[in-house]
Amino acid sequence: xxxxxxxxxxxxxxxxxxxxxxxxVRKGEILGLxxxxxxxxxxxxxIISGVYKPNNGEVFFNNENxxxxxxxxxxxxxxxxxFQHPQSFPxxxxxxxxxxxxxxxxxxxxxxxxxxxxxKECLSKVGFPESKLNVPLKNLNTIELxxxxxxxxxxSRPDLLLLDELTTGLTPTExxxxxxxxxxxxxxxxxxxxxEHVMRIIMNVSDRIxxxxxxxxxxxxSPKEVGSDERVIxxxxxxxxxx
Length: 243
Ligand SMILES: Nc1ncnc2c1ncn2[C@@H]1O[C@H](COP(=O)(O)OP(=O)(O)OP(=O)(O)O)[C@@H](O)[C@H]1O
Ligand SMILES: [Mg+2]
Prior knowledge:
Helices cover 37% and strands 24% of the residues. By secondary structure, it is α/β, with parallel strands linked by helices. It has 2 domains: 1-78 and 158-243, Rossmann fold; 85-157, no CATH class. The radius of gyration is 18 Å and the shape is globular. The mean pLDDT is 93. Bound molecules: adenosine-5'-triphosphate and magnesium ion (MG). Adenosine-5'-triphosphate (ATP) binds at residues 12, 15, 17, 35, 37-43, 84. Magnesium ion binds at residues 41-42, 84.
């Protein structure tokens, strides 16, 4: 197992956002995380990446307990995350945004020149247009911003990539392209855990799916098993999902 989340609970005041959740991710796997709005999906990824500390429970990454490590240390260990509501540096250009990750990421210290080269490589890999490398982030469209988010995560050289609704706002064709890219990244050796609301995408790309509802894990299994699980149908899907 690359990642083991054990009995994790997170409160926000009186609200229990994540309740006693246990989830494991195998090396090389694409694990899908789904559930209704407010189910605790983003909170769970934020706990794994160190944005939040859990009130109870532990997180192990490559058999090491990382629960109390800082966000920065967790990133250097090899976990990268994209944010559902990214707040980047609007005045920076795409290339500079990705360079920051290359400079501060997982365990290597490139020079500025090397970081620029790595940033360009990561942006090219995710299909970012070369002609827009120096355009400020605030002037990019949705798909271009999504590509820069992914490139930033990749530039930190993660072993585990956490994606929070990376494909939200994309057209179906762009979504298909995102699926290809996510598979390619996994095939190159990066384990992936991803939140996604578009069923067609998550059912298609995931090896295994975990379903949260109201902070609790209510189901876990192959896309087929989860798509026909009665509890998942009543709380989330509405009807059986045919693969
Ligand atoms: N920083 C916070 N402070 C207070 N409450 C929070 C905070 N972050 C999340 N919550 C609450 O915790 C619950 C779970 O939120 P979370 O964002 O994890 O859900 P989600 O499954 O990602 O939902 P969505 O599909 O809408 O993104 C919600 O009730 C949310 O309002
Ligand atoms: Mg969310």
